């Protein structure tokens, strides 16, 4: 990994964390989310974000 990749990696980690929080809030309610709820949702959040990225990349290729 290059040093230039670190800001992108940090931004991705923030996106995954935020999306996991949204998933956890939908599951247990915004006022009841605990750290373990985020841990349980991290995999789902990463999968969903990767789907969005892949869809965007695929869509960009179709426009050319």
Chart the SSEs and their pairings.
Layout: H1 6-28, H2 35-63
Task: Give structural notes.
It contains 2 helices and no strands. It is mainly α.
Mean pLDDT: 91
Strand count, sense and closure of the main sheet?
A: none
Can you count the beta strands?
0
Low-confidence stretches: none
The percentage of residues in β strands lies in under 5%
Quick one: overall form? flat
Count of helix runs: 2
Helix content: over 70%
> What structural class do helix, strand and pairing data support?
mainly alpha
Sequence of secondary-structure elements: HH
Structural Rg: 15 Å
How far is it from the N-terminal to the C-terminal residue, by CA? 30 Å
Descriptive key words:
0% strand, 81% helix, mainly alpha, 64 residues, 2 helices
Short description:
The protein is mainly alpha-helical. About 80% of the residues lie in helices and about 0% in strands.
